[in-house]
Hints:
- By secondary structure, this protein is of the alpha+beta class.
- It has twelve helices and 32 strands.
- The strands form nine sheets. It has an eight-stranded parallel sheet.
- α8 (198-201) links the parallel β9 and β10 (204-206).
- The radius of gyration is 24 Å and the shape is globular.
- Residues 1-19 have low confidence and may be disordered.
- The structure holds beta-D-galactopyranose.
- The site of beta-D-galactopyranose has 10 residues, from α4.
Amino acid sequence: MKSMIFLVLMAAGSVAVAQQRKTPIMGWSSWNTYRVNINDTLIRKQADALVRSGLKEVGYTYINIDDGFFGYRDAQGAMQAHPQRFPGGMKVVADYIHSLGLKAGIYSDAGAVTCGSIWDNDRNGIGAGLYGHEEQDAWQYFREWGYDFIKIDYCGAGQELDLDEQPRYTAIRKAIDKVEREDVEINICRWAFPGTWAKELAASWRISGDISDSWASVKHIVEKNLPLSAYCRDGHFNDMDMLEIGRSLTESEERVHFGLWCMMSSPLLVGCDMTTIPERSLALLKNRELIALNQDTLGLQAYPVQVLDGTYVLVKDIERRRTPVRAVALYNPTDTVRRISVPLAELELAGKARLRDLFAQEDLKAVEDSIVATVAPHDVVIYRVEAERRLEPTRYEAEWAYLPLFNDLGKRKKEIFYAVEGKASGGRVVRYAGGCRENAIVWNGVWSDKGGKYEMTVSYLPTENRGLEVVVNGASVQVPLSADSVVTLPVVLHPGNNTVEMTCRTQWAPDIDRFTLKRTGDE
Ligand code: GAL
């Protein structure tokens, strides 16, 4: 993972305070092409290819060994490498990777058995997971062998032992902490957004089942990640899974795959055979301007501002927050050509806007009023947009909000979630907020340029027996619901960021679509 160092120079005494903020990891992982059929020579060849191809130079620095290296536990319970696949053991492989100036990643399961033992008939994976060997394995993997990253899967802990995710991953995290290597990075692989607790334990977490080398899979993962932008923050990332670029996707599908993984700040782990990667795919993976979106130090995930007729417009701040510079993607997952048009105002931008096409890496003619592009089927265009002014936002969708009690594990009925709803403005509502104060919908960055009085209009789906409490910067008001699905209330905002929450202590809140703001005067 690349870390950015910010130096804050304090004038008096010139004390330099270094603060680290992490960006998504970039590198290669063995799983997509080789599954459990890996070995020492193969890993070294891929590491060599990563350097030779120039991928290292643009930021791909991890070589991650996925499932398949397990041999057996010795009499003391210590994990041994697969004797045929890794005859020299796992330390020599990590040493080799490090000798190239790269970092080394490894894999395990939160339970006793690995996924490979269940799905790939890898008998050595039985008993190879971390369960009952947490501290022993952590010491061995990170101290003795010297690995820098671990992906922790859940087949053994889930299918076999039916453990609860949060306490299980917490126990593993504690064992890893004892090794005292603060640079070790953890990935939670539970194939769904695991819950907001994950940010205390891991740098990234998978949000979907396994990716496959197919358009349907890429499209599905993007769709799953659309409402999750609020969880990508403070150096923690939604993991959209390893890349299938350089395999069988078409040129435009590869653009979507790479472009949106960059817009959404997912880890970027190449998954093909790098010794035979097609030139076209390699050039895409090395596009520095797209990589810059992924490694942007704000660490934000683009969110959908316009969902229309099967097409999407996604946007995020880059470089600095709330300036007239933003990254914008016009995404067409449909099977026909579409003309996608988005008003600049929807992007909170105004004035003349200069566009730079980040795939072609060329500047386009400046536009006013709106951005329009004809986008081929299964394709995307991505622009760096530099407008003259940044507007105060007037709309906040429920699918942009943070839900403190949200998870996507599907274990309990009637848990708060982002429900697909054709009638909603962005295609989704938040359902099952309320029941207690904490089960809220939270918008953390409700922005006001100058502060003042506003009229807030909340839109929701018509439902009976619901209550609504709106909390602005901690001050709560009970809002009477009406039959026509909108309710308007006066609110006061501070200059800068405000927090708006919607909940209900005594019953469910209605399904919330969004709220809008209209400034009515000074405070
Ligand atoms: C899956 C995981 C894959 C891969 C595989 C190994 O559960 O999602 O990315 O690691 O296990 O068996």
